[in-house]
Amino acid sequence: MHFARVTVFLCLCGLPLLAQRGPASEKNPLAGDPEAIAAGKKLYEETCQICHGGDARGGRGPALAAGDFLHGGEDGQIFQNIREGIAGTQMPGFDLLPNEVWQLITYIRSLSGTIAQEKVSGDPSAGEKIFFGKGGCAACHQVNGRGSRLSPDLSSIGRWTAQSLRETILNPNQREGRERNVVVVKTRDGREIRGLRRNEDTFSLQLMDIAEQFHLLDKKMLAEVRYEEKSLMPDDYGRRLSATEIDNVVAYLKTLRVRDLARVAVEPVTGGLDYERIRNSSREPHNWLTYWGDYQGRHYSALNQIIPENVGRLQTRWAFQVPGGGPLEATPLVVDGVMYTTGVLGRVFALDARTGRTIWQYQRRRKLINPYDSTKVNRGVAMLGGRIFFTTSDAYLVALDAKSGLPLWETQMADHLQGLSGTMAPLALKDKIVAGISGAEFGVRAFIDAYDPATGKRLWRFYSIPGPGEFGNDTWEGDSWSRGGASTWMTGTYDPDSDTLYWGIGNPGPDLDGDVRKGDNLFSCSVVALDPNTGRRKWHFQFTPHDVHDWDSAETPVLVDRTFRGETRKLMLHADRNAFFYVLDRTNGRFLLGKPFARQTWAKGLDDSGRPVLVPNQEPTAEGSITYPSMWGATNWMSPSYDPQTGHLFVTFREFGDRYYKRHDEYKPGRVYVGGKTTPVEDQEWGGVKAINPETGNIDWEYKFFIGSLSAGVLATDGGVLFAASRDGNLVGLDKRTGKLLWRYQTGAPIDSSPMSYAVGGVQFVALSAGSVLYSLLYSFALPPEP
Questions:
Q1: Which of 275, 315, 703, 726 is 20 to 30 Å from 410 at the Cα level?
Q2: Which CATH number fits domain 124-264: 3.30.750.200, 2.30.30.100, 2.60.40.1120, 1.10.760.10?
Q3: Which one is catalytic: 294, 550, 576, 665?
Q4: How many CA atoms lie within 13 A of 566 on its CB side?
Q5: What confidence category does residue 160 fall into, taking pLDDT thresholds of 50, 70 and 90?
Q6: pLDDT at 1 > cutoff 80
């Protein structure tokens, strides 16, 4: 059986209310008021009836009269959904007065139960067999992960009325408002493609064919576009199926109230991106297959269409307005012409990478909200096989179907109410998804986890703070290890040849009060090398023992093979927040070189083992003590870039200090636990990009920004251009050999992300996000098209 198009048009789904709109638990002040019911009925007929049908019994959109709402049924949640709309659906927001929204809710509530109480004859079990057998419905539709991704998912179709379901089965081409989404195109080279339209504008068309393959088409390459009058759904079920069989199918569909992830997770997901492609990502520079661009964390593009001689002609090719505001910190993936990226608060998007047109979007509603945690950001996704993986602010790891955006499984990583959250992009390995956790400022005990990509089952856990009896626990006084922080909030890197996982670890907690956690506090402010099969530690190196300045070491451990002091070595390059640049032997963690790359006043230098030699009286005090760098560090989480052509590690930096104050905080689970504060030093703030020579640690050149660039990363390209960005919204192109400014573009919003590059149809693009609380955009730039 083939449903033409089930537009999930719920007016009543969405997120918890924003603070200024009232909490999600807010009650309707007009509940049961006869005048409000009458006014709401009039508003419904003017605003909602065209989609949800008369008396809210369903039409193009689901029925609302059942009192059973897919994305939240509290009054406050319904209010939010009507005002803001629903990401991932065609449900828009309505600019109604608050009183009018409450009237609408009052009317809809007055209808509750009319659908739930309707009598449905038929045998659901028999109907299920027909759906997946004789009826052929699963050839186009999916129920709980079983079936095709071509047509809409029917896992929650039971919210429709029985009458609407029956009419759609018997007369699929007669439904009011049905859109013509079956498209046949002929290309100029003679190919014919037939499929369902996912999106379209004047110049482009995105469709999925019967084999579930995306076709992202430029209309100038098409000889003909034809829209079929009929849907894909057969219109002869009235003859093919008996009345009893139709009743059975309707009865089965009425049982489908919500997508059941327990059943979805056992179904196979085909196609997509395999491990060998990620491992050999250098063979396909037109794609960006993992967060850093490759497993080694180089954040480098081998594309060379954009060069110093033509970068001045670079222009915006498209901009995608990201729902939900910002800030945006994600680095997108691009896989075979499709871009996958995230917004804030559980939003994930699949876009046509050539045009920026939406293929699908998904928004997950948070299950938990810690009132003391304002975490919104997300840094991106991982892909393995046909699945997309991302972490959530309420500490879940979620898998989506890469073709449809539908959820496949979700696993709770930790208790968000204790202060733990997910912000980082997971790392996809051969048969594991590896993810870390945020929350050191809440006094948590952080960890790195590995999960089964097919089911979400946890395979192992490595705690970044060792427990009693484990190596390193004696570097924590008393029980301070149990609330010592050491977040694992940035994506690690991986060496496939040695099968070793490398992960940067955050600062200890409380951040500024070291008196309550005496000792070196392993493995905080360290890099750890792990066996990805077991999670066991191979070695570690600590950059800042007993950190009291919030200088975590989540910065990228960049893996390079190069000549160092006359020998070909397997190295790790790391520019740390503490203002020192390090070179380590990544096979054993041996310290090879360390040198400041920005202003610092806390260490005289590093000894032969790489341990800092401290300057006296640089710890925070009750009165405040001035130390460089600031709490934000000389660099931070944003991407560095290693260039194999010049041999430089390009790093964003910032040179200013803070006055650090210490205080004693009482630990309370789920609440901020930092042990002090900082205030800026009255000094000129500046930053920018530095080119570090790994052989010597010397700075070969630097480019300064007016406002420090710590919010954005850098990207070196094979064409000779280095892209960087500043907090004041400027994206710039520099000559990577000299640091000379070649091009700039003002995005109009703060930039908190790192640029990346990809190619579609032989055209190189550079993409980057910019955004604020009010609005956010994902930009993609390229050279002007040929006339």
A1: 275
A2: 2.30.30.100
A3: 550
A4: 0
A5: confident
A6: no
